[in-house]
Automatic annotation (TrEMBL):
The keyword Hydrolase applies. GO terms for biological process: acylglycerol catabolic process. GO terms for cellular component: membrane. Residues 29-263 form the AB hydrolase-1 domain. Signal peptide: none annotated. Keywords: Hydrolase. Pfam families: Abhydrolase_1. This is Alpha/beta hydrolase.
Length: 276
């Protein structure tokens, strides 16, 4: 677990997806979804805790993210990610796993469930992109002018990504963690991929499903960092109120990157929920 790398691959219409799983092969399955501009590395502290508790933990990098395939004109939209996730669940043979999803991963998990028939035993949403409006002024600026930002000198681009990723944390990221999150977005391929995924972000992918939240019929917990400056805590309250029976669990002193700001607290919340 110290060297975070994903050993398995699946070829999809949106490119090669890298994935891995660990823990007790007979344990209850749990699938972890990352957000943007991150990768499965955000779970590198939470995943071992879930595995140690007896769960079979599945992680993956979305197409266009982390160690998965990145290429020109790639469709990495939230619409495609929901389809890829549904395909992955079938590939893994998981008929009803528990799912823990952060940021964009929350929208991906919700779309897979509400639009593509994916079934979950339980669902944990961690500071998800789920309600309009979303997208910071910086995010919208980059999306509207991605062709300009793609031409930034490499050093300036990396500095921009580092500052952007850092702003998602309230506690402050350790240098090794920051390096791991930034590294996939460096180099010619990574730089183009970073602006590609922002350019393809579109609120219509949450608008599609937001009216369906009151129809969700499974146990849901919403965990939210109280110091999230990307998506304020009030959105967590709003989302929990829309999903029947959903529990809202504030995570004190954590920003948007709850899995890295408060991994022990988040793992505890998830394990308690899964055991209910």
């Amino acid at each position: 677990m110290g060297d975070w790398s994903l050993r398995e691959t699946l070829s999809t219409a949106s490119g090669t997806v890298r994935w891995d799983r660990f823990g007790d092969p007979g344990g209850e399955p749990v699938v972890l979804l990352h957000g943007t501009p991150f990768s499965s590395y955000v779970w590198h502290e939470v995943a071992p805790a879930l595995a140690a508790a007896g769960h079979r933990v599945h992680v993956w990098d979305m197409p266009g993210y982390g160690s998965s395939g990145m290429y020109a004109d790639q469709d990495v939209s939230l619409g495609v990610q929901g389809e890829v996730f549904t395909e992955l669940l079938a590939h893994w043979g998981l008929r009803e796993p528990s799912v823990v999803a952060h940021d964009f991963g929350g929208c991906v998990a919700l779309r897979a469930h509400l639009l593509h028939g994916a079934r979950y035993r339980r669902l944990v949403l961690v500071d998800p992109v789920a309600l309009e409006p979303w997208g910071s002024p910086f995010f919208r600026l980059v999306g509207e002018h991605s062709h300009v930002f793609e031409q930034l000198p490499a050093a300036l681009h990396e500095a921009l990504v580092r500052e952007y990723v850092t702003s998602a944390s309230h506690a402050g990221l350790r240098p090794a963690a920051l390096d791991a999150l930034v590294r996939p977005w460096t180099g010619e391929r990574g730089q183009a991929a970073f602006y590609r995924q922002i350019a393809q972000a579109d609120q219509r992918f949450t608008d599609d499903i937001q009216p369906l939240y009151p129809t969700i019929d499974l146990p849901v917990t919403v965990c939210w960092g109280t110091e999230d400056t990307w998506i304020p805590f009030a959105k967590g309250q709003e989302l929990a109120a829309l999903i029947p029976g959903a529990r809202l669990r504030p995570v004190p002193d954590a920003g948007h990157l709850v899995p890295l700001d408060a991994p022990a607290r988040l793992a505890s919340e998830v394990l308690t929920f899964l055991a209910r």
